[in-house]
Every structure is written in structure tokens, then in C-alpha cells.
Amino acid sequence: MVQENHLPPLRIVVVISGNGSNLQAIIDASQSKLAVEICAVISNRPKAYGLQRAVIAGIKCHTIDHTEYSGRETFGAKLKQTIDQYNPDLIVLAGFMRVLSDDFVRNYPGRILNIHPSLLPKYRGLNTHAKAIAANDAYHGASVHFVTETLDGGPVIVQARLPILANDNVESLAQRVQDQEHKIYVEALQWLSQRRLIWSDGALTLDGKPLLQPIVINSEEVNEPQIV
Ligand code: GAR
Q: CA 181 to CA 27: how far, in whole Å?
């Protein structure tokens, strides 16, 4: 898709492990408003449903089964080799459930994006919905962030925040969070594709202003972002 500002679309490779609902949101948006070219989808799980989504959309797919590699470094080396043949601007982790090696991450400073199902820095790692419910948190959500060597620790761009309802369980909360994930991931990619969001030496700017804290979208709807 050619942008009004004549910038070329952002070339991305999407890396998944499972269902691929975030991948689907990106595919759908790329067919309308979002100026990204999905060069390839890579899964570490051969049976990931997201691979079927990619096939249906006519996107090249690769499986790199992590169980066939002796460790993070060898898996990371194969992942890098596969990604680099597409020379992407950005690597988009969308439900990718492996920890990447430091060596891998260091190859792509400011060029790996992740979505995590919590209001980072709360609840890094797994089982975030259960942890938020167990802690009696009033709010939960999801974060889009750049990936650094610190697990779930890179600069956060945008968060969707929603209330935990009295009758929420892990499944209902996960579903409501995922509905928001799809919106904020597309939004963050839009800002990047329009070169409005820029990472330079670890610092983020949005529309030329330092992004010192994440943009928080405080409802179940993504409206125009409020910069706080
Ligand atoms: C999403 O909820 C995403 O936030 C989470 O996995 C799910 C994948 O769903 N990612 C992580 O937990 C990464 N640490 P999807 O495959 O349907 O997009």
C-alpha cells in the first residue's frame, strides 16, 4: 500500500507460536489502512494455527521447530538466517512464546516489537491474566514494546488498560485483553510505518516529542491516543 506521504510500506516479518489472532489483525489491517508488507511468517511450532492464516493470506511461511535445536543460540542463529533473507525493517513478535537469545536481540536494535498481555512492568513472563486476578488488580491490559535483552523489559510504546470485572475469569479476561491487543498492535505499527514513532539510541520519539511513558488507552475502545 502506497502511503499518502509517499513513504514505502514497512517491511515486516511476523514471528508466532500459536493461534495468530494478532497476526490476523495485522494481515487484515495491511489489506486496508496499514502500510506494512508482511514478507514472511515464521513459527517455532509446526502446528501453529497462525501458519494457516498466513497461507490463506498468501504469505510465505517458515517453521523453525525449536525442539530440533540444542539451545537458544542455535535456534536464534537459524531464526536470524531465515529473517535476514527478507531484509525486513522490523521483526514483529505476535504471540511468540520463546525467550530469544541476547545475541539474537543484539542483531536488531530497535527493530523487534513484541506484544505482552499485561500492563508492563507488571507481570513479565507467563500467566499474566491469572496473576492480575489473584492480585485483585482493578485494571489489566496489554503492552506493545520494543524488545531488548531484558525479558519483557524494553521501552513500552502503547498500552491498552481495561477494568477487571467482578465476574471475570482467566478466559474472559484473556479474551477482552486480546480484543484490545489487536487494536494497539496495529496502532503502534501504523505510527512506525508513518515514521511518526522513531527509536534512536534507545530513546523513543512520537511526532518529534520524547515518548517518556507509554501512551495509555483507557477503555475498551481505541480512540485518538492521548499523550500524557
Ligand atoms: C497474546 O495474548 C499475546 O499477548 C501473548 O500470547 C497471545 C498470543 O495470541 N504473548 C505473550 O504472552 C508473549 N510473552 P495470538 O497467537 O492469538 O496472537
A: 14
116 is catalytic: yes
**How close is the Cα of 46 to the center of ligand 1, in Å?**
17
H-assigned helices in 91-225: 102-106, 128-134, 170-193
Tens-place pLDDT, residues 73-111:
999 999 999 999 999 999 999 999 999 999 999 999 999
Atom 1 of ligand 1: nearest residue by CA position = 95
Nearest ligand 1 atom to the CA of 117 is: 4
Is the minimum distance from the CB of 141 to ligand 1 under 6 angstroms?
A: no
Contacts of 186 (CB under 8 A, 6+ apart): 25, 26, 29, 34
Q: Sign (positive/negative) of CA torsion 133, 136, 142, 146? A: negative
> Closest Cα to atom 17, ligand 1: which residue?
21
pLDDT of residue 2: 52
CB 128 within 8 A of CB 139: no
DSSP states of 46-109 as a string? TT-HHHHHHHHTT-EEEE--GGGSSSHHHHHHHHHHHHHTT--SEEEESS--SPPPHHHHHTST
Q: From CA 27, how far away is CA 37, in angstroms rounded? A: 9
Interatomic CA distance for residues 31 and 33, integer angstroms: 7
